[in-house]
């Protein structure tokens, strides 16, 4: 029979084998970690670490075993002891340090308690942030490059549907130009309304280009607000010889005669003096003009397109504009929205103007994403004209081949995004701010959470959750 001592010995052997196997398994787990795992006792003596420490410090793991963290600090291998902080606070402690080789590391120490609630060991995890930072920088660069490619594709796509460099991206402008095409060969008077610089004259020229009148007559434009009132009548209707002192001895035809069989574009019609409003009304009704100093009338075949940035109905109420002339002009009213109401047009217009300026001055300027974002978010009180002028101004004034937000004139500074001090923000706050900014931009471009998820390379439920978190609605910033 087996003795009791031999049975106990076998049990102990089994326990030893089991403990050895568990130790081997634990060593394998620790060794397989990409991050450094560093275990010390309550006195700061190193008990165990893995090979990852050699990748970060350049020193083999065997060197550390049995070494006290204080000794490692004296040698300059460690700058600060996380072990001591864990022992003092008896809780997990995290810090970011640069080691002696200059690598940025995230160090997190966790206490291991015994049965009496006392700290007996400290397990420290060391993560190399340098590689992570390099990956993030590479990702940012890739995203910037991807964004520039997308903007270039959008520019090329917008150019493919243009006619005579007319941007037709926004639904409003597509509807307006479709209407203009339909009424091109109808002789009804058109009244174009809109703020200064929205492109009223471009639309008028488009109507002319699509009409049969473009083959028979000219497109003549006159700005009713740019010519002194005492000269405007002679410009419109012409004069006979000797009509007034200084008149041409042969007389002079007015623009109505010059536009015969074509289109006359009366820009800033709201600036037309009341006395001339009467004469213009008679001309429109009778389709004939009489030169200043003349004794007979002449039949004309002119289509009128008028435009103004003023509220003609309000002017009629105040008595500054004739009601009968207003209704004679307002046969086909077309309202062109401001640029801030059709932001889809900003990006293609921006690159169209940049291309035109580069070609005009033999340059090769480019625009970075920060400036592009500013152009997209700015309210453009001067509309398309202000945008075109700004592109030309920046292109000529900047010494760099790549235009950035720093090249903007001082008067635009209050509309540029302010720098944020990320040093005073937690990592969570930085991430949330970046997420919110990315989502705010995405809802301006895409119409569904599915499209946003595809663009941002994440899942649709994640997008739905994040939009709810930041209280962002699709379409509210469009």
TrEMBL record:
<keyword id="KW-0804">Transcription</keyword>
<protein>
    <recommendedName>
        <fullName>HTH-type transcriptional regulatory protein TyrR</fullName>
    </recommendedName>
</protein>
<dbReference type="Pfam" id="PF00989">
    <property type="entry name" value="PAS"/>
</dbReference>
<dbReference type="InterPro" id="IPR009057">
    <property type="entry name" value="Homeodomain-like_sf"/>
</dbReference>
<dbReference type="Pfam" id="PF00158">
    <property type="entry name" value="Sigma54_activat"/>
</dbReference>
<dbReference type="InterPro" id="IPR025662">
    <property type="entry name" value="Sigma_54_int_dom_ATP-bd_1"/>
</dbReference>
<dbReference type="Pfam" id="PF18024">
    <property type="entry name" value="HTH_50"/>
</dbReference>
<feature type="domain" description="PAS">
    <location>
        <begin position="22"/>
        <end position="68"/>
    </location>
</feature>
<dbReference type="InterPro" id="IPR003593">
    <property type="entry name" value="AAA+_ATPase"/>
</dbReference>
<dbReference type="InterPro" id="IPR000014">
    <property type="entry name" value="PAS"/>
</dbReference>
<dbReference type="InterPro" id="IPR013767">
    <property type="entry name" value="PAS_fold"/>
</dbReference>
<keyword id="KW-0058">Aromatic hydrocarbons catabolism</keyword>
<feature type="coiled-coil region">
    <location>
        <begin position="132"/>
        <end position="159"/>
    </location>
</feature>
<feature type="domain" description="PAC">
    <location>
        <begin position="89"/>
        <end position="141"/>
    </location>
</feature>
<dbReference type="InterPro" id="IPR002078">
    <property type="entry name" value="Sigma_54_int"/>
</dbReference>
<dbReference type="InterPro" id="IPR058031">
    <property type="entry name" value="AAA_lid_NorR"/>
</dbReference>
<dbReference type="InterPro" id="IPR035965">
    <property type="entry name" value="PAS-like_dom_sf"/>
</dbReference>
<keyword id="KW-0175">Coiled coil</keyword>
<keyword id="KW-0547">Nucleotide-binding</keyword>
<dbReference type="InterPro" id="IPR025943">
    <property type="entry name" value="Sigma_54_int_dom_ATP-bd_2"/>
</dbReference>
<keyword id="KW-0067">ATP-binding</keyword>
<keyword id="KW-0238">DNA-binding</keyword>
<dbReference type="InterPro" id="IPR030828">
    <property type="entry name" value="HTH_TyrR"/>
</dbReference>
<dbReference type="InterPro" id="IPR027417">
    <property type="entry name" value="P-loop_NTPase"/>
</dbReference>
<feature type="domain" description="Sigma-54 factor interaction">
    <location>
        <begin position="166"/>
        <end position="396"/>
    </location>
</feature>
<keyword id="KW-0805">Transcription regulation</keyword>
<dbReference type="InterPro" id="IPR025944">
    <property type="entry name" value="Sigma_54_int_dom_CS"/>
</dbReference>
<dbReference type="InterPro" id="IPR000700">
    <property type="entry name" value="PAS-assoc_C"/>
</dbReference>
<dbReference type="Pfam" id="PF25601">
    <property type="entry name" value="AAA_lid_14"/>
</dbReference>
């Amino acid at each position: 029979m087996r003795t009791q001592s031999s049975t106990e010995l076998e049990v102990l052997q089994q326990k030893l084998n089991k403990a050895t196997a568990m130790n081997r398994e634990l060593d394998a787990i620790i060794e397989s970690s990409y991050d450094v795992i560093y275990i010390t006792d309550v006195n700061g003596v190193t008990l165990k670490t893995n090979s990852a420490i050699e990748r970060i410090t350049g020193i083999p793991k065997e060197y550390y075993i049995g070494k006290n963290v204080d000794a490692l600090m004296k040698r300059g291998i460690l700058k600060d002891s996380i072990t001591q902080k864990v022992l003092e606070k008896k809780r997990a402690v995290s810090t970011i340090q640069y080691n002696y080789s200059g690598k940025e590391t995230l160090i997190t120490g966790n206490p291991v308690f015994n049965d009496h609630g006392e700290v007996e060991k400290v397990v420290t995890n060391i993560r190399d942030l340098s590689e992570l930072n390099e990956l993030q920088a590479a990702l940012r660069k890739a995203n910037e490059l991807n964004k520039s490619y997308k903007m270039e594709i959008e520019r090329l796509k917008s150019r493919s549907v243009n006619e005579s460099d007319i941007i037709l991206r926004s639904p409003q402008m597509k509807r307006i130009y479709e209407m203009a095409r339909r009424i091109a060969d109808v002789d009804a008077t058109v009244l174009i309304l809109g703020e200064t610089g929205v492109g009223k004259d471009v639309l008028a020229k488009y109507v002319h280009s699509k009409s049969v009148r473009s083959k028979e007559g000219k497109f003549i434009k006159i700005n009713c607000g740019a010519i002194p009132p005492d000269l405007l009548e002679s410009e419109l209707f012409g004069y006979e010889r000797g009509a007034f002192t200084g008149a041409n001895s042969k007389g002079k035809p007015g623009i109505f005669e010059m536009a015969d069989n074509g289109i006359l574009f009366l820009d800033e019609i709201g600036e037309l003096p009341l006395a001339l409003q009467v004469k213009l009304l008679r001309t429109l009704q009778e389709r004939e003009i009489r030169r200043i100093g003349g004794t007979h009338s002449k039949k004309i075949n002119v289509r009128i397109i008028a435009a103004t940035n003023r509220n003609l109905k309000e002017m009629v109420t105040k008595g500054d504009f004739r009601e009968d002339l207003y209704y004679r002009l307002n046969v086909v009213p077309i309202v062109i929205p401001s640029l801030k109401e059709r932001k889809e047009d900003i990006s293609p217009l921006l690159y169209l103007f940049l291309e035109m300026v580069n070609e005009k001055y033999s340059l090769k300027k480019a625009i970075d994403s920060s400036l592009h974002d500013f152009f997209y978010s700015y309210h453009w009180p001067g509309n398309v004209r202000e945008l075109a002028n700004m592109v030309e101004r920046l292109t000529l004034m900047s010494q760099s081949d790549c235009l950035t937000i720093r090249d903007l004139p001082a008067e635009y500074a209050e509309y540029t995004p302010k720098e944020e001090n990320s040093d005073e923000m937690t990592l969570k706050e930085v991430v949330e701010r970046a997420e919110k900014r990315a989502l705010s931009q995405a809802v301006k471009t895409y119409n569904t959470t599915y499209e946003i998820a595809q663009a941002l390379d994440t899942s649709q439920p994640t997008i739905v959750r994040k939009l709810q978190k930041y209280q962002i609605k699709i379409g509210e910033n469009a």
